[in-house]
Amino acid sequence: MPFLDSPFLGFGLGLRPIYYDHFLEQKPDGVSWVEAVTENYISWKNHHPIKSTALLEKVRSHLPVVLHGVSLSIGSVDPLDREYLKRLKELAHRIEPAWISDHLCWTGVHGENNHDLLPLPYTDEAIRVVVTKVQQVQEALGRRLLLENVSSYLEFAHSELTEWEFLTEVSKRADCGILLDINNIYVSSINHRFAPLDYLNAIPTQRVGQIHLAGHTTDPQGYCIDTHDHPIIDPVWDLYRHAARRFGRVSTMIERDDKFPPWETLMAELGEVKRIWEEENERSYSVRDSITVPAFA
Amino acid sequence: MSAPTLYEIQLRFQHLLKEEFRATSPDWLGGRDTPPITYQRRIGIYHAAAEMRFQEALQEDFPQMYQVLGDQDFGRLLRAYLNQFPSRYHSICEVGQHFAEFFLSPPAGIVMELLTRHPYLSDLAAYEWTRNLAYWAVEFPPLKLEEMQSSAAEAPESVVLELHPSVFLVESSWQVDRLGTSRKLASRDGVKLMVSRQNGRVTGRRLGKKPWALLREIAKGTSLGNLEECLNTHQIKPDEALRLIASWVSNQVIGSFRRQNK
């Protein structure tokens, strides 16, 4: 059973400027929802007539939107950035997202933001830091948060748990949801030599509220880097097949952030996501499968 | 040896992101440290990603400066800038806002060296950031000329015109608006520019002495009824001033007006 706070919206895409035309006037065929990057709409750089929050509202008028942040820095020892939280709350009030997510990571310390999703040591101290802050965020927003597993390129000598144990423990103690990024599991599994199925099988099904899929880059030395600039590769499709069977009715989307393919190519890839989900769930997905998100006034 | 705290790890990690990786491996890193996936390579991925991300953001906001300096010097400048003004913003798009200020009290080394070769860098940074402000400014419904005129006719001394939020006045000793097209123009002739956004595009237009003086007076918040001194000083005839103001309203250089209490 998936995370109850997150309705099953079907199959979606990240809202990126290059594809705006497909979202502005109507709901595009084959896309049931979109994910918008929170920071693009809470900066003062969001007033331009063609890149504004008003534009996001327009998309929201005919399509469910979820908000996905990159700067909450939930794992930093710094206190929560109250100004960020205030702006996020205001944006959520305007957009009425189906849910709000961010990453299980930290982005800086001493008030700095390195604008990267930095890994945490898997220790009890880190769990306590994250859980306290997630609870503060959830209280401020009046809703539960989804936290995404990030790709990582290094490990810490003093980690006491595996990544999946850490993620599970955080979600249970903080009572939050999980945004499971299948590509990130694959990337980290190559970089740190673990079995990705061990990871997938350990994640509590009732906590997973959303799934991300994406492509990545493999360097000549065999190291994987989470670049979101390639199509999804076969081993990630295989993992998704397993995830679709295990987690069932969980909204799933493709993240593409660079080397953007033509719209039709991306739609074909999203069609493959839907086809695999249907195969693994032995039924045809239709709009009726989605829980309706209240219309946006 | 006791385990480092989360605070200690984060502080050390953040430090490593900013500088080239040293030969010794930090004892708090775990996992494999054997070729091809060495600790140096692992930290290097984060280091390179951070540099690339900041460089892309600043390159977008300061395209002329990037063109003038080239990839290598722009990258060195960027590292020095971020050491002094690390990002404290939610969005990476905001990180360049102290660039002009940075050149006013530059650290020794590469920045001083670049300033010797390109003494206009501070002005150029200010100009390019202003263009950025103009681009992202709030959109306003156009001001109706008749509405402004009828208010001005009633009590001109109380009517204060306001520039559209996307309009900025920039004065520089350097021809910062032409550096991208010809380096020879980086001479001390000086320019007075009106930076504005029209149909989503930002332009920097040079203004003559009279329009500049009048628009700057308006930007200072001088009411219509109190512009006389400015007109006299700069020998601007009243009908000439009215024509300029009407055209600025039509072109959304003037975006609104307010009544000021006496």
Throw out a few tags for this protein.
heterodimer, A: 297 residues, alpha/beta, TIM Barrel, two-stranded antiparallel sheet, 9 helices, 36% helix, B: 262 residues, alpha+beta, Outer Surface Protein A, domain 3, two-stranded antiparallel ribbon, 10 helices, 12% strand, elongated
Describe the structure.
The complex is a heterodimer of chains A (297) and B (262). Chain A is of the alpha/beta class. Chain A has one domain (11-283): TIM Barrel (Alpha-Beta Barrel). Helix content of chain A is 36%, strand content 14%. In chain A, strand 9 and strand 10 form a beta hairpin. In chain A, helix 8 (234-247) packs across helix 9 (263-281). The longest helix of chain A has 19 residues, at 263-281. The model of chain A has no long low-confidence stretch (mean pLDDT 92). Chain B is of the alpha+beta class and 262 residues long. Chain B folds into two domains: 6-118, no CATH class; 145-259, Alpha-Beta Complex (Outer Surface Protein A, domain 3), CATH 3.90.930. Chain B has helices at 6-18, 39-61, 63-84, 99-104, 110-117, 121-135, 145-154, 209-219, 228-233, 238-250, and strands at residues 29-30, 159-163, 168-172, 191-198, 201-206, 254-259. In chain B, the strands form two sheets. In chain B, strands 3-4-5 form a three-stranded antiparallel β-sheet, sandwiched between helices. In chain B, helix 2 crosses helix 3 (63-84). Chain B is elongated. The mean pLDDT of chain B is 89. The interface between A and B is large, with 49 and 45 residues.
Task: Set down the secondary structure blueprint.
The complex is a heterodimer of chains A (297) and B (262).
Chain A: E1 11-14, H1 20-24, E2 33-37, H2 53-60, E3 65-68, H3 82-95, E4 100-103, H4 124-141, E5 145-148, E6 155-156, H5 163-174, E7 177-181, H6 182-192, H7 196-202, E8 208-213, E9 217-218, E10 224-225, H8 234-247, E11 251-254, H9 263-281
Parallel strand pairs in A: 1-2, 1-11, 2-3, 3-4, 4-5, 5-7, 7-8, 8-11
Antiparallel strand pairs in A: 9-10
Helix pairs in contact in A: 4-5, 5-7, 7-8, 8-9
Chain B: H1 6-18, E1 29-30, H2 39-61, H3 63-84, H4 99-104, H5 110-117, H6 121-135, H7 145-154, E2 159-163, E3 168-172, E4 191-198, E5 201-206, H8 209-219, H9 228-233, H10 238-250, E6 254-259
Antiparallel strand pairs in B: 2-6, 3-4, 4-5
Helix pairs in contact in B: 2-3
